Amino acid sequence: MTTQELANVCRQVRRDIINMTANAGSGHPGGSLSAVEMLTSVFYTQMRVDPKNPHWEDRDRFVLSKGHAAPCYYAVLAEMGFISTDEFTNFRQLHSILQGHPDAKKVPGVDASTGSLGQGVSIAAGMALGAKKLGKDTKVFVLCGDGECQEGQIWEAFMSAAHYKLDNLTVLIDNNGLQIDGTNDEVMSLGDLPAKLRAFGFETIEVADGNDLEQVLSALNTPTVPGKPKCIIARTVKGKGVSYMENQVGWHGKAPNEEQRAQALKELEG
Q1: I need a surface site. Which of 10, 118, 136, 168 has the fewest CB within 10 A?
Q2: Could you tell me which CATH class the domain 3-267 is placed in?
Q3: In this model, does residue 237 exceed pLDDT 90?
Q4: From residue 52, how far is each of 32, 83, 221 by CA, in Å?
Q5: Which tens digit of pLDDT belongs to each residue from 72-103?
Q6: Residue 260, Cβ neighbours under 10 Å: how many?
Q7: Which pLDDT value is given to residue 132?
């Protein structure tokens, strides 16, 4: 797939995020929009998966640790053919497979149920360690939020990933600088995040613009260092692609109304 074709997928994913959250009248558009390029690139260019056989034992694994970005996840899965776009109208509705946070028992292509922040890296590290123990070449990817990195369990998982030399694990951090209550620096400063990850034993790659496909792909395609887990820290824009949402903390967990939906979709026509 060319970069332009991938960009077209990203544009459609953004439109799907807007429609899902507007349909439901709830959800988390801001942090879904910031993660689009990373999540799309991982699924389309890095992972060995089969939408026709979502439980294939030898597939690669993905964990959405920031589970509230589920609209982005669902949109990518639909683009790949794991689920039908018809499900989008049921997002966050009672008995729908597409709940506000991903449910591995209901959604083909979802490897872990997530939502309680701070737990995803532990799950992913366990998957990566299990693959190592079984002698499999499975790759595991996990996407975290930067605000989520204020959780202690994240750092325990980072420590264990390095200890067990999980070079089959890639952690992506969506560093959009905002969380539900304000900026990361206001709530709980993360300090020098790249330096901390390097100190914890990760091969750490900084991406200046995590909404630029070429930069994201370059980071993902960086060769693995034997014995070292990889971490990609990507600076992104919360609400990316929708002018009135960009860098606005208020759009963390608020859905667009009909007028705002129309404006967003118009901006995302390309």
Answers
A1: 136
A2: alpha beta
A3: yes
A4: 25, 10, 26
A5: 999 999 999 999 999 999 999 999 999 999 99
A6: 18
A7: 98
Tell me the domain boundaries of the chain: 3-267
Phi, psi for residue 57 in degrees, rounded to 5: -60, -35
Residue 217: CB partners within 8 Å, gap ≥ 6?
A: 3, 41, 45
For position 225, what pLDDT does the model report? 98
With 0-12 / 13-18 / 19 or more C-beta atoms within 10 angstroms meaning exposed / middle / buried, residue 144 is: buried
Q: What is the DSSP string of 113-149?
A: ---STT-HHHHHHHHHHHHHHTT----EEEEEETGGG
Strand partners of residue 169: 140
- The neighbouring-strand residues paired with 206 are 233
Strand residue runs (E) in the chain? 61-64, 140-145, 169-175, 178-179, 182-183, 203-207, 230-235
The DSSP letter of residue 87 is: G
Residue-by-residue DSSP string for 199-211: HTT-EEEEES-TT
Give the distance between the most distant pair of CA atoms in the chain: 53
The model's pTM is 0.98
Residue appearing with tokens 């400063």: 189
- Rounded distance, CA 177 to CA 132, Å? 34
Rg (CA), the chain: 17
